[in-house]
Amino acid sequence: MSLNTIEHLIIHQLHKEPNGPARVALGSAPLAVNSASQRLVDHLCELYGTRNGKGFGKFDLDDESFAMPKLINSFAQAQSIDFLTLSQQMMAELQTRAEAEPLASGGYVLIAQVSNAAMQFIFIAIISEVIGTAISDEMGVVDSIHLDMDHLRVAGRIDLGGWKSGGERYVSFLRGRGDVAGYFKAFLGCNDVKTPLKETQKLVKGLEAFANEQAIAGNERDELFQRAHSYLDALGDGQGEVDLATVAEQVFPSSPAQLQTALQSDELGINDGFVPDRRAIKPLMRFKANGPQWKLEFDRASLRSGAVIYDKYSDTLVLSNIPDELKKALLEQ
């Protein structure tokens, strides 16, 4: 049984060759939901959820320059247009944006309103065709044209609940490569201003959560955080941008796909393409805590070396190798 409920579904077509003009062919009506269309939407939603390199943001405040905020408001809030009209006006905007991007290419444009346990959303994907091979009824080999769903490059999602509640990250899209994602981001009307400090903090949080979920402890945990710190520190120093797939390869080489899947979760919502803020990666190497009458900061590795010992039975923390300056200061109290 599918976890996605398709409220509305339609497919249009965008005709566009690289460096050529754009035109659209519109579907005449929303499609009936059957087993084939359900499988298609389920598969695309699953692909989108697991795909690396998504941008997150909200509608740009300049709704004169970007059509999507008004269209979504007219459909989901004012209810002054129906789904068919929404999809047709979205195609007009997509045509304009694709026309302005020389490298944009066409395909079938699937637009769906979908709901599941997590959210209700508008999903848009551009799907290209590929030629495969099939066997005819006469047992001959023939060409077979089908949708290339496994190479999804251009897609986006608008979380209607997040939009209605005034959230900050209700629009997401596949970044892709080069300027191609830029025209689709403009089509969505998405403002994905990235704050390196916040994105780095989310990345560190994701690494810590992964270590906890995988029960990585002791020296193995120290080594994982050390690799992460070294790599992100080098990126920050050289002004290199974060790519989650590369981070996973550098930090967890034994199973990079496992870490990549964890880091690209929608819950974290990490935007690729930011330069790490070196201040925010310190928790990977340093432990900080405070109470009403004290503050502590020490290297995580100290817990393994014996310089810092925590006794959970007596609920005490023992510090060893106290420097002379600290001993003198304590004796003077």
UniProtKB/TrEMBL annotation:
InterPro entries: Nucleoid_associated_NdpA
Pfam entry (one): NA37
Cellular localization per UniProt: Cytoplasm
Keyword list, A-Z: Cytoplasm
A GO term from the CC aspect: nucleoid
Source species, domain of life: Bacteria
UniProt main location, coarse: cytoplasm
Record family assignment: Belongs to the YejK family.
PANTHER family named among the record's database cross-references: NUCLEOID-ASSOCIATED PROTEIN YEJK, PTHR38772
Full protein name: Nucleoid-associated protein
Organism (species): Chitinibacter fontanus
Organism placement in taxonomy: Bacteria, Pseudomonadati, Pseudomonadota, Betaproteobacteria, Neisseriales
